[in-house]
């Protein structure tokens, strides 16, 4: 019995010993990685700062681009981006409205000599050798835009001589007021003086009134269409050719175009037609202006004028190409 009890005790201790040893020396072979807590859905701080920086510039194109990138990168932040974009547009509309009101008040209180803008133009040519040629072209244009009234003053002078003989000497000046009936329709008046003895007249006077329409009148594109009755008086160089038909009523049609086709490139067109059964005059001046400096531009232009019944010994069509510099003021 004593030996049996000793055997049972040894057996019990052998069974318990491995479990005790295993519990004491256990090492986990693959440690569990620490998993970071997921970020809350929405727009990250860095992306928000990027959008707010773009908004601070006040540039709509830049804001639009940055918000589009943020929407693509962080779709979960769409709601917050909508709010930032809506706030920017609202503030911008408020700023533009305040600026328009300030401009309106400035126009309402401006004096008759205030608010004018325009440019001066000058070009020249000279040649020596087989012929002695000298040429000068100069022009002036001024505009004033008020609340309802607009004023335009233009003047141009062209002179050219060859071997001491004058081959071109032309003067033209005009004044055109207009009154806005709506944002697009207007009524206008025109007074114009011309002198071109090479073409056979020492002076030509024109006066007109009518109605006009502006299909486009915004920065970068302006188009005016005008028409109405006109009165004309022509004084010829040769008084023997003058007759009562040199004073007559005619119909006027005109087009004015300014189109900025590139950042520093503008196309201009000024065309008019005085139409009468005996003698009609068609004139057009096409120009291409390229920016050189902040206020300085180079201009290449081509002008044509055609009279259906010109004075004797003169050609019906006259053309002139110019290269000149323009200074805006």
How would you explain this protein's 3D organization?
- A hairpin with a 4-residue loop joins strand 5 and strand 6.
- It is elongated and about 110 Å long.
- It has a twelve-stranded antiparallel β-barrel.
- The protein has 329 residues and is α+β, with helices and mostly antiparallel strands.
- It has two domains: 45-109, no CATH class; 116-328, Beta Barrel (Porin).
- The termini are far apart.
- Helix 2 runs antiparallel to helix 3.
- The protein is 25% helix and 50% strand.
- The chain is built from four helices and twelve strands, in the order ααααββββββββββββ.
E-strand count: 12
Q: Which strand-content bin applies to the residues? A: over 45%
How far apart are the termini?
129 Å
Level-1 CATH class name of the largest domain: Mainly Beta
Which stretches are low in confidence, meaning pLDDT under 50 for 5 or more residues running? none
Please identify, by name, the CATH architecture of the largest domain: Beta Barrel
The CATH topology of the largest domain turns out to be Porin
* Tally of separate domains: 2
Average pLDDT, rounded to a whole number, is 86
């Amino acid at each position: 019995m004593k030996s049996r009890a000793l055997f049972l005790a040894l057996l019990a201790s052998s069974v318990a010993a491995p479990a005790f040893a295993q519990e004491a020396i256990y090492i986990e072979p693959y440690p569990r990685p620490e998993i970071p807590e997921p970020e809350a859905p929405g727009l990250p701080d860095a992306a928000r700062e990027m959008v707010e920086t773009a908004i601070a510039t006040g540039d709509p194109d830049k804001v639009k681009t940055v918000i589009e990138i943020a929407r693509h990168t962080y779709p979960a932040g769409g709601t917050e981006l909508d709010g930032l974009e809506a706030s920017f547009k609202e503030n911008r509309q408020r700023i533009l409205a305040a600026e328009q009101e300030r401009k309106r008040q400035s126009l309402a209180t401006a004096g008759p000599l205030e608010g004018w803008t325009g440019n001066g133009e000058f070009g020249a040519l000279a040649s020596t050798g087989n012929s002695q040629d000298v040429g000068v072209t100069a022009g002036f244009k001024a505009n004033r835009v008020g609340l309802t009234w607009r004023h335009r003053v233009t003047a141009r002078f062209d002179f050219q001589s060859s071997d001491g003989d004058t081959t071109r000497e032309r003067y033209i000046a005009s004044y055109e007021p207009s009154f806005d009936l709506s944002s697009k329709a207007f009524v206008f008046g025109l007074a114009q003086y011309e002198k071109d003895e090479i073409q056979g007249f020492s002076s030509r006077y024109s006066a007109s009134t009518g109605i006009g329409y502006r299909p486009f009148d915004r920065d970068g594109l302006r188009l005016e269409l005008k028409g109405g009755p006109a009165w004309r008086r022509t004084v010829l160089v040769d008084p023997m050719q003058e007759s009562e038909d040199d004073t007559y009523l005619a119909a006027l049609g005109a087009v004015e175009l300014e189109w900025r086709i590139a950042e520093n490139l503008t196309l201009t067109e000024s065309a008019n037609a005085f139409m009468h059964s005996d003698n009609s005059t068609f004139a057009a001046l096409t120009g291409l202006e390229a920016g050189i400096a902040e206020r300085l531009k180079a201009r290449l232009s081509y002008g044509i004028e055609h009279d259906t019944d010109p004075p004797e010994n003169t050609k019906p069509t006259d053309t002139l190409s110019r290269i000149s510099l323009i200074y805006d003021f």
